[in-house]
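Sorry to interrupt, but I need a hand with the structure work. Can you supply me with one protein entry, sequence and fold together? No commentary is needed, just the two lines. Leave the record below and I will have a look.
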Amino acid sequence: MERNSEIQLQEILAFFTKRNKIQTNAIFPDKQELMPIETGSGFWRFLMGFFSRGMRLPLPLRAFTLWNVHLYELYPSFKDHDYEVELKSRFSKRTLEKMANSYFQFKKFMIHQENCGMKVSTDAMVLGALASHDKMDSILDVGTGTGVVALMLAQRFTSSEIHAVEIDKAAYDQASANIADSPWKSRITPYHHPFQDFANQSADFFDLIVSNPPYFPAHLQSKDQQRNLALHNDALPFDDLLKGVAKLLVPQGKFWVILPERQMQDLEIIASHFDLYANESVELRDRPSAQVLRVIQSFSFQAVKTKRKTLCIREADLSFSADYRKLLADFLLAF
C-alpha cells in the first residue's frame, strides 16, 4: 500500500475508534504479523460479521481494511449516523475503493481481485469449503474468477490436480497470478477459454466439477461489461454448463454448484435431461429464521434420495454459528 493510503487508513481507523470507542491495533497489507484487536462493542461485532463473510452489500461506500480481511461496505442503516457522508467528505473515493478491492487475505493464501468482475464472496467460500467427493484426483473449476475456489480445493485436497477455466481475460490473468503466488501452483492449471470450447476440446475427465455460475438474465445487464460476464448467464446458459459437465464428469463423479433457490430449481430440471440428479443439498441461511440465501447442491449420474441439510451463518443472537465457523476455520483469519 502506498504511504498516503496507509496514512489515510490510520485516519479512518482513528475516525471509527473515536466515534465508537473501539480500542484497536491495525494491520496493514504489507506487514505479515497479526496484531490483536480488542473490542467488546456491539457495533464492532456487527461489522466483524460482514467483513469475515466477505459480503458485498448494496451501499456505494467502500470502506477500510482491518485484521487482514476486507470490510466491503457499511450496512445501510449506518447512514443514520452520517458515516457515509463523513467518510466520503474526508477521504478520496480512490483511496476507499483501493483499500476495499485490492486483495483478500486467507490464512494460507492471498487473493488479489482488483481486475475481477466478481470479488471474493460468501458464495465462493462456502462452495470451496463444502464441495467434496470420495475420489479427488482430478478437479475442474468452471468460471474460476479470482481463483479462490480452486485454491481452497487445492488446500483441502493435497494430491488433487485442478483445472480452472475462465472466459474473462482480466480475471484469467489475475487468477493465474494468484495461483502462481500460492503454495499449490504446481497442481492448478488455469485456462482462458469459454467453458463450451474447453468442454468440446478437452480430453480429460474429472472426479469433481465445481461452479459458482452466472445466473442473472441478459436483460438486467449493467454498463460494466466485465461484471456482466461474471454475473449474467448469456455467455454460459445452464444447458451449456450441464452439457459440458455431463461430457467431462467421470461415471462416478460429482458436480457441485451454488445458486439462489429458484435458479437451482431451474438447473435441477435441466440437469435431469443430462441424467444428472441431485444427491446432496445444503440450504444456506443467514439465521435459522431467515429465508434461504443460496442452495449448494451436488449432482451425479446416480439417481438416489437427496440428502438435505441447512447451514446457518449466524445464530439467532447474530453470533457466528458453530457449523459456519468449523466450515471456514481453515481459511478465514477471523476464525
Residues 3-20 form the longest helix (18 residues). The radius of gyration is 20 Å.
